User: Which sequence fits this backbone?
């Protein structure tokens, strides 16, 4: 198991958002059944860390992954990219993905 890591850009973004929010343990990353290929990423704030969670840290920011999702995201790097003022967001580099749907919304492992 290698875990999930954030790039420095992603960690800075998450830290800024957590500071604005005023609470939270870190970034929660999970998967859910979705789309035409199988799974989609679910990203939210981690307000608590449960007994079934795995915690990884990058640049001082925690990434929390539940046990069920870990095998689908293990080894993934999350970046935060800005292409212009209006278009920004997380980019997932997941070595486990075998196929993605055409719209990029779902993937299979």
Assistant:
């Amino acid at each position: 198991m290698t875990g999930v890591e954030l790039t420095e850009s992603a960690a800075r973004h998450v830290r800024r958002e957590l500071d604005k929010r005023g609470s939270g343990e870190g970034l929660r990353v999970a998967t859910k059944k979705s789309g035409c290929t199988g799974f989609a990423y679910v990203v939210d704030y981690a307000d608590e860390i449960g007994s079934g969670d795995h915690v990884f840290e990058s640049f001082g920011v925690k990434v929390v992954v539940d046990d069920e999702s870990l095998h689908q995201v293990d080894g993934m790097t999350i970046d935060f990219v800005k292409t212009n003022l209006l278009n920004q967001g997380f980019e997932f580099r997941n070595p486990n993905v075998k196929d993605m749907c055409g719209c990029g919304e779902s993937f299979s492992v």
Notes: The beta strands are 5-6, 26-34, 38-46, 53-58, 61-66, 77-82, 88-93, 99-100, 107-108. The mean pLDDT is 88. The chain has one domain: 5-101. The CA atoms of residues 40 and 106 lie 5 Å apart.
